[in-house]
Specification:
Blueprint: H1 3-8, H2 10-16, H3 24-40, H4 45-59, H5 70-85, E1 101-106, H6 113-126, E2 131-135, H7 141-154, E3 158-159, H8 167-181, E4 185-189, H9 198-211, E5 215-221, H10 227-238, E6 243-247, H11 256-265, E7 269-273, E8 281-283, H12 286-294
Parallel strand pairs: 1-4, 1-5, 2-3, 2-4, 5-6, 6-7
Antiparallel strand pairs: 7-8
Helix pairs in contact: 2-3, 3-4, 4-5, 5-12, 6-7, 8-9, 10-11
The structure holds guanosine-5'-diphosphate.
Guanosine-5'-diphosphate (GDP) binds near residues 111, 114 and 115.
């Protein structure tokens, strides 16, 4: 796992080799290369700066353990810190004792929100948790059809009221229906826009205030790179999120958005999307992501 980054950062490690302590002078180049690796992995610049500032004192003064090369030891420190920043372990979805658990999906248009709604429903369905998906994107009738088609495909019902109803009412009545029918989990798909705008945030906040979800999950496209941090910041500040789903990780992004999202919101990434199919969802594991980010 550490071989590839060791190769990538070959120049910097040479200075560490043969030393018996990782010191301020011999660590400078290594840290600069870690900084570059993180930026190449699309971790947000500010997040990179903070990360380096935290790793530096941890690495300095570390005695080199015999039998382990100092460069390997340094990479291990960086790796452990990445895992720590991303939360150490997988954080599962909340499940409340008194059903239904209510999950609100948020995100920009095209990030994979509707797909993630169906992926989550299928995931829960396989765990024998009954689900209802609620279609509140009244601005794009195609979005309602998309969710209905996905629902048919995975055998999970979809609640919709067409495109003339108010999204807040649809969400509220969807939750009511789930309560009446004793459904375990309601997943509310919401409208996205190409960019953040006040109307979208206002509507999302009103839905949230009305249905009081147990989870508000932001779907972030892993390919958006640097922008993931500002996007997460705005959604978290204006609506408040409890976690995120990182979509499109099957692309060639190194996944730096994971570090940015966690760092900026302080909330866990719960799942990753790894393809267009409804089955293409996996729990998020900080160790795997740390290895991927380090390349
Ligand atoms: P929404 O506008 O946020 O609801 O986005 P959609 O769910 O409609 O997804 C937008 C596009 O991204 C569609 O073509 C999806 O098939 C695709 N998509 C969603 N999730 C993933 C993923 O994890 N990997 C890949 N490769 N494509 C995805």
């Amino acid at each position: 796992m550490f071989d590839s980054i060791a190769e990538r950062l070959e120049g910097a490690w040479k200075k560490l080799r043969g030393q018996d302590e990782i010191s301020p002078s011999n660590i400078r180049d290594a840290l600069r290369d870690v900084r570059r690796a993180l930026l190449e992995a699309d971790v947000n610049l500010q997040v990179v700066k903070e990360f380096i500032a935290e790793v530096e004192p941890k690495a300095q003064g570390t005695k080199v353990i015999s039998g382990i090369s100092p460069d390997q030891q340094f990479i291990k420190i960086v790796y452990d810190e990445l895992v720590a920043v991303m939360g150490e372990t997988n954080v599962p979805l909340i499940e409340v004792d008194t059903a239904p658990t209510i999950i609100l999906m948020a995100g920009l248009q095209g990030t994979g929100k509707t797909t993630a709604t169906a992926k989550l429903a299928l995931h829960l369905h396989k765990l024998n948790r009954s689900c209802l998906m609620v279609a509140t994107d009244v601005y794009r009738p195609a979005a309602i059809n998309q969710l209905t088609t996905l629902g048919n495909q995975i055998g999970v019902p979809v609640f919709d009221m067409g495109s003339d109803a108010n999204p807040v009412d649809i969400a509220r009545l969807g939750v009511e229906k789930a309560k009446v029918e004793g459904i375990n989990t309601v997943i509310i798909d919401t409208a996205g826009r190409l960019q953040i705008d006040a109307d979208m945030m206002g509507e999302l906040s009103r839905i949230k205030e009305t249905v009081k979800p147990h989870e508000t999950l932001l779907v972030v496209d892993a390919m958006t790179g640097q922008e993931a941090a500002s996007l997460t910041h705005v959604f978290n500040k204006q609506v408040g999120i409890s976690g995120a789903i990182l979509s499109k990780l099957d692309g060639d992004s190194r996944g730096g958005a994971a570090l940015s999202v966690r760092r900026v919101s302080g909330t866990p990434i719960k799942f990753v999307g790894i393809g267009e199919k409804v089955e293409a969802l996996q729990p998020f594991y900080p160790e795997r992501m740390a290895s991927r980010i380090l390349g």
